What we know:
The chain is mainly alpha-helical.
Amino acid sequence: xxxxxxxxxxxxxxxxxxxxxxxxxxxxxxxxxxxxxxxxxxxxxxxxxxxxxxxxxxxxxxxxxxxxxxxxxxxxxxxxxxxxxxxxxxxxxxxxxxxxxxxxxxxxxxxxxxxxxxxxxxxxxxxxxxxxxxxxxxxxxxxxxxxxxxxxxxxxxxxxxxxxxxxxxxxxxxxxxxxxxxxxxxxxxxxxxxxxxxxxxxxxxxxxxxxxxxxxxxxxxxxxxxxxxxxxxxxxxxxxxxxxxxxxxxxxxxxxxxxxxxxxxxxxxxxxxxxxxxxxxxxxxxxxxxxxxxxxxxxxxxxxxxxxxxxxxxxxxxxxxxxxxxxxxxxxxxxxxxxxxxxxxxxxxxxxxxxxxxxxxxxxxxxxxxxxxxxxxxxxxxxxxxxxxxxxxxxxxxxxxxxxxxxxxxxxxxxxxxxxxxxxxxxxxxxxxxxxxxxxxxxxxxxxxxxxxxxxxxxxxxxxxxxxxxxxxxxxxxxx
Length: 480
């Protein structure tokens, strides 16, 4: 049997197959039916705007020959989109199979609903003769750019951003919990000045928080200005109407977007490049976190909680593999690849219009899907690890040479005060500690061999690799 013959159809991508449960929330906003539903919202709201005007024109019809729609008629139009169900999707598909044009199919779908208005409302209504008002003075991109912007805005705000916030909040809580837990730092993979686990987690919280603030503040631009952005058809239909102001009000007040006053046939998509660049940046920060935690696990700093019944290795029963972090890494990379491509491609268009952006934007859901999947796995991974204090303390105890830094710095300060015997402090400490195994006794003896004042000597001898962490714990409070 061919897999293509199986019903329901087998998903081509892992996002709609293996990982469907994790990525399904995005279907509500960035799937093809979601886009068509949003197109219906734009088309019907435009009809209401044309018929009922706006505050600036005294709520008068923008075109002669139509009466303002009453509340019931407006409610009827606004109910078309929410009722876009499985049967509706099939009806739209039938229209598109004939028109070969998705927006035109939406127009015909709305025409059908207008034809049914009297039957549904149970009374005469002008809606039955307003089919000509559907898509009035619009090019497809007038509808598409607004629909796409609203779809992406809702997907980011309702699905992606809360998932990213969950990771941020979990990290922040862990950073505060482990603010004072000492950790041997490694720079270039070598033992370095100790820090705390909480402070290192807080670094990621701070980085993520800055980028998520950019996402929250992101503008989503829109336009509704005709075939080449000139309001040409609008001004022919109603020369005395301030169509520029109508467009601004519609985009900002009805669509909830930022008005773009200057476009070709398409909205220029610069806001999308900005948004995808920021989300890609978040992905890369969290990819960095995945790699760090993976290496902490390998080093024994983090211990994993085994999942009952789960298999770590098909041949080595003892293993608990950090697969959630590896899965997150891979999916962040996939998301970045798509987002980077989207950001680079969408900002270009041949003269006043070409169709490359139309098919390209159909991959936005996939790009967000990979990131959402990665966030899901990263959070699950973080929730399944905990610090191994025994390993962490032993690492610190095995590396007394990290106290070379405070000793040579104290020597520098003494040399500046004119204390003899403190010359070339860096070199003196380097001869003692570099490449050698150093114990507490070695450190104490070296401090005693130098002419420190009693207070400085006492302070230096009180330091241990576990206590030489500066103000690391205090820094955690600055994460966000």
